[in-house]
Automatic annotation (TrEMBL):
Pfam families: ABC_tran. GO terms for molecular function: ATP binding. Keywords: ATP-binding, Nucleotide-binding, Transport. Residues 2-224 form the ABC transporter domain. SUPFAM superfamilies: P-loop containing nucleoside triphosphate hydrolases. This is ABC transporter ATP-binding protein. PROSITE patterns: ABC_TRANSPORTER_1, ABC_TRANSPORTER_2. InterPro entries: AAA+_ATPase, ABC_transporter-like_ATP-bd, ABC_transporter-like_CS, ABC_transpr_LolD-like, MacB-like_ATP-bd, P-loop_NTPase.
Length: 224
């Protein structure tokens, strides 16, 4: 599903250059939940940005579902992110003035999905994440865990092949964090989607199919 080969990413030039990634290679199988672990500054977010097509490597390549991201122009990358990748962020990233249902529907509006089909998909996804009764509530009326569930539903809106989650439990208490990881685990099984999640919580890693560890921009402990 995802193949990263010899990824390097540097910021700046000369002696002041920061080498965020130093030759990272790994694969993610289709329908698998992979946890990416590492301390702050290890390169996790940089790697997620490269896999998600939000940034380009200094050297190396990322292939997503058979497509080399380096071969896509900005329009192609935008289409890839819209159609094939869903994103879940630590800060939830919901639009405050929109209801839960409206937030979930945003990606489908961008693709101009017909209203009837969009509303049906929103209902299905909110039920999937356990929020069928909260469709008309706005983010400020929801708990942190509920907001993140809305974010997961939104990430699934366009039926992506891959979901990328950057510390999705970072602002949640431990039990709520576990519930979000269990939800991602369930999504992998029910939707057949592939998930790459960055986390530093060992308890959450136990729910993953595989763990890839980054240290100082290098893979040091990929686990089957």
């Amino acid at each position: 599903m995802v193949v990263a080969e010899d990824l390097h990413r540097s910021f700046g030039t000369g002696e002041r250059a920061v080498h965020a990634l130093r030759g990272v290679s790994f694969e993610i199988r289709r329908g698998e939940l992979t946890a990416l672990k590492g301390r702050s500054g290890s390169g996790k977010t940089t790697l997620l940005n490269l896999v998600g097509g939000l940034d380009s490597p200094t050297r190396g390549s990322v292939t997503l579902d058979g497509t080399d991201l380096a071969g896509l122009d900005e329009k192609g990358l935008l289409a890839m992110r819209c159609d094939r990748i869903g994103f879940v962020f630590q800060s939830f990233g919901l639009i405050p003035v929109l209801t839960a249902a409206e937030n979930v529907g945003v990606p489908m509006r961008m693709r101009k999905v017909a209203a009837a089909r969009r509303e049906e998909r929103v209902r299905t996804l909110l039920a999937l994440v356990g929020l069928a009764d909260h469709a008309e509530q706005r983010p400020g009326e929801l708990s942190g865990g509920q907001q993140q569930r809305v974010a997961v539903a939104r990430a699934l809106a366009n039926d992506p092949a891959l979901i990328i989650a950057d510390e999705p439990t970072g602002q949640l208490d431990s039990e709520t964090g576990r519930s979000i990881m269990r939800l991602l685990r369930a999504v992998v099984r029910s939707e057949g989607v592939t998930v790459l999640v960055a986390t530093h919580d060992p308890a959450l890693m136990e729910l993953a199919d595989r763990v890839v560890e980054l240290r100082d921009g290098r893979v040091v402990e990929p686990a089957e």
